[in-house]
Amino acid sequence: MTIKNVKFFLVNAFTSTAYGGNPAAVIFLDEPLPEDAYYKIAGNFNQPMAAFLLPAAGRVYEGEEKDDPFDLSTTKTFAMRWFTPTFEAPQCGHATLALAHELFQDRDLAPPTATLLRFETMHCIFSARRLSPLSATPKIQVQLPAHSVTAVDEEEFQKMKNIVAKASGKQDIAIRFIGNVKGEIGFDVYVLVELDEQEDLGGIKFDTSAFLETPYIVNIMTKAGQTPEIAYETRMFAPKIGVSEDHVCGSANCLLAPYWAQKLGKKDGEEMSAKQVSQRAGDLWTEVDMVNKKVLLSGEATTFAKGEFTIEVV
């Protein structure tokens, strides 16, 4: 049995402050761990998500050729997994941003010549690049898959509306649209609910336990921004996996960005500013590339703490 020292970081994603955004534990590993160790480590950190960096395994995904072009001199490839104490997530935007933030600062793993990070994940390649590197808090842009939502049928609309009304404590809550993703593994557990622009999304005190009644894991609430600078506002609830409310959800924008781009008449590559109106709040910038079915999600991140822990490896 070997005792190893492991680097860790606590990072707030989608904020430039120490007390905003969405926290994540970031753990750098040089080899895989026994499966139960990931859950135990995530439990010890007790953050909304723990992101584990691992060496690349050379995975190839459906629709991606092994010789897909990217510049080896400026690209570094790793593997990444996301865990809560009870659940391995198929994707997580905020923890990806947090991990990329730390990786770009590690000159051994990601030298200055590295401008693009590629991550092998459960279902696909995620990537991240650093924007405005000379800024005190440079934005990082994460590339995520884009998914279109389809309106649910009338029966499910009424069921979801009743649940949202119960959760919000407003029987007359005005809902404009409810849609989900069809046939996409990992995203078929997401639902998007657009509230009327007159609803105060940030001010509603949701009873998040009500979302246990939906057939979905990730319950996204959204509405048009209250100011011209903000394209859309959002909140996300996932009590089925122990996340009563996600402070700032990155992966929700895999649905939100395409939805709002189409609704607002945005062209591919045209940036939108979004606001997560949870208590901690967060700022995000999104653009879509529907030709290649990608969402480009940008934000800042701040390191709150860092150190090492020891682990026994058999």
UniProtKB/TrEMBL annotation:
Entry keywords, A to Z: Isomerase
GO-annotated molecular function: isomerase activity
GO cellular component annotations of the record: cytoplasm
InterPro entries linked: Phenazine_PhzF-like
Domain of life the protein comes from: Eukaryota
Pfam families, A to Z: PhzC-PhzF
Keyword NAD among UniProt keywords: no
Record field: transmembrane: none
Assigned protein family: Belongs to the PhzF family.
Name this polypeptide is given: Diaminopimelate epimerase-like protein
